[in-house]
């Protein structure tokens, strides 16, 4: 299996361009099925999850024209069924966005239930609550979900928990329902706004995305569109924290500063210097980071998807930090891997106490989910000596050209497939 090998100790310096937002693109690709006209989508991140979602849409019968790695034209007029294959759901949870899209357009959808994953149980009860409120019958039989409706009628829906997925899924189904839907306690992430803007560019009538009350007036049909995905807030934040963790100086280009406010604020608290430009942020890491505290919250709070990167920075701070993970119930497993590098932390329920150390030491470690994997790469690039990271397919799901972007910043990192390649990397990077 492929692994990353890193030689740590070099600050990351230079410029990096942020790719399109994975979590916006997944909803937008599903929504593209809701019209029979051509949809052109640009600035797609070329990552595994996107390619799997395109496979799932292709298997429904849609025509997919991959113009280049970051641009695709979709025409769903040839969709011949509403059964999403279990293989695709097993490979990517976000296939469940096809429920909202297919239910909205065809009033039927048969989709395997997504299981839990490394970070938590991740039920979809709020998605089902929304579909049922719109008039759909949702039957769970084993691991299959069948949703169907004679007609979908707008409704007043209050989410019991702020859910990105449920907000996007219900927004799609309601876009083609009859009448008005009010969705309260909606998630406000940038990718929600991007999916709403995409649907509106197809003729939908969605107002209030980005606030906690979204108003959707159903329309009879959606038309084709051309759309470019927003920059990825979490990829941008990951590279901003990479500068802090490696005491570097990185200009992160092609981002929306407004989306980065909670992340910039934490980096300032930890002693980094931040310059903000129209579509870029420069982060200069401190010689020794100050400790701080973080509680992950729905947007605009500190993102849960940035929690492992922040905790890795705290593991090198001069003092003790406290992290409260309020979104997912099992998102601290990577701290065991950091401990193998000399990190010191204690987890009690949803709270981790992190005692900063002067240096981390290279070790054999493994990625346990997408964002933890990226954080452990940063740890390896800051540590003394060599680090070998396995299970990196998690990282390849959501970060485009990750090792290339890091090498362009001066990182000594390579993707290796054998002990011989590891030895060769060590020979080539020996002092
Ligand atoms: C999205 O997951 C993202 N994934 C996640 O990013 C991100 O961590 C999460 O939002 C929070 O921002 C995609 O967009 C593809 P939620 P999602 O529904 O939609 C509970 C990454 O690294 N919940 O907002 O699944 C749930 O268990 C990934 O890119 C219910 O209880 O997250 C969780 O505790 C990881 N019932 C909380 O709500 C439901 O019906 C927030 O989940 C739905 C969710």
Q: Would you kindly provide a brief summary of this structure?
A:
This protein is 33% helix and 24% strand. The protein is of the alpha+beta class and 431 residues long. It has 2 domains: 3-18 and 231-429, Alpha-beta prism (UDP-n-acetylglucosamine1-carboxyvinyl-transferase, Chain), CATH 3.65.10.10; 22-228, UDP-n-acetylglucosamine1-carboxyvinyl-transferase, Chain.
Structural account:
The chain is α+β, with helices and mostly antiparallel strands and 431 residues long. The chain folds into 2 domains: 3-18 and 231-429, Enolpyruvate transferase domain (UDP-n-acetylglucosamine1-carboxyvinyl-transferase, Chain, Alpha-beta prism), CATH 3.65.10.10; 22-228, Enolpyruvate transferase domain (UDP-n-acetylglucosamine1-carboxyvinyl-transferase, Chain, Alpha-beta prism), CATH 3.65.10. It contains 15 helices and 23 strands. The protein has helices at 22-31, 48-59, 86-91, 97-106, 125-133, 164-175, 190-201, 233-245, 261-269, 307-314, 334-340, 370-382, 393-396, 402-408, 419-429; strands spanning 3-7, 13-17, 39-42, 63-68, 71-75, 108-112, 137-141, 144-148, 156-158, 180-184, 205-207, 213-217, 225-228, 249-253, 273-276, 280-284, 293-295, 320-324, 344-348, 351-355, 364-366, 386-390, 412-416. It has a 4-stranded mixed beta sheet, with helices on both faces. The protein has a 4-stranded mixed beta sheet with strand order 2-14-16-15. The mean pLDDT is 96. Bound molecules: ligand EPZ.
């Amino acid at each position: 299996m492929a692994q990353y090998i890193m030689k740590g100790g070099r600050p990351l310096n230079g410029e990096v361009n942020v790719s399109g937002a994975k979590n916006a693109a997944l909803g937008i690709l599903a929504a593209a099925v809701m019209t029979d006209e051509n949809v052109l989508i640009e600035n797609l991140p070329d990552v595994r999850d996107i390619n799997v979602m395109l496979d799932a849409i292709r298997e429904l019968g849609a025509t997919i024209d991959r113009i280049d790695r970051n641009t695709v034209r979709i025409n769903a007029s040839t969709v011949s069924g509403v059964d999403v294959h279990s293989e695709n759901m097993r490979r990517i949870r976000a296939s469940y966005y096809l429920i909202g899209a297919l239910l909205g357009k065809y009033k039927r959808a048969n989709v395997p239930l997504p299981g839990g994953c490394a970070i938590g149980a991740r039920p979809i009860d709020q998605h089902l609550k929304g579909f049922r409120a719109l008039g759909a019958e949702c039957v769970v039989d084993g691991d299959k979900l069948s949703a169907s409706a004679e007609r979908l009628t707008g409704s007043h829906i209050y989410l019991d928990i702020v859910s990105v997925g449920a907000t996007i899924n219900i927004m799609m189904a309601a876009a083609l329902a009859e009448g008005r839907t009010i969705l309260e306690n909606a998630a406000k992430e940038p990718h929600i706004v991007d999916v709403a803007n995409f649907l509106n560019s197809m003729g939908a009538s969605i107002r209030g995305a980005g606030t906690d009350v979204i108003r959707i007036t159903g329309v009879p049909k959606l038309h084709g569109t051309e759309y470019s995905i927003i920059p990825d807030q979490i990829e941008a934040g990951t590279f901003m924290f990479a500068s802090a963790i490696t005491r570097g100086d990185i200009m992160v280009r092609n981002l929306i500063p407004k989306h980065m406010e909670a992340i910039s604020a934490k980096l300032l608290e930890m002693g980094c210097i931040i310059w903000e430009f129209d579509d870029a942020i420069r982060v200069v890491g401190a010689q020794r980071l100050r400790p701080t505290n973080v509680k992950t919250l729905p947007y605009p709070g500190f993102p849960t998807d940035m929690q492992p990167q922040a905790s890795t920075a705290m593991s090198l701070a001069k003092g003790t930090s406290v992290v409260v993970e309020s979104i997912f119930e099992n998102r601290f497993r990577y701290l065991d891997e950091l401990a193998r590098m000399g990190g010191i932390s204690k987890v009690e329920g949803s709270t981790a106490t992190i005692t900063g150390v002067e240096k981390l030491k290279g070790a054999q470690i493994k990625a346990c989910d997408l964002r933890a994997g990226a954080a452990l790469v940063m740890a390896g690039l800051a540590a003394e000596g060599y680090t070998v990271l396995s299970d990196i397919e998690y990282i390849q799901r959501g970060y485009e050209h990750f090792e290339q972007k890091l090498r362009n910043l001066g990182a000594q990192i390579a993707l290796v497939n054998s002990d011989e390649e590891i030895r060769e990397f060590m020979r080539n990077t020996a002092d």
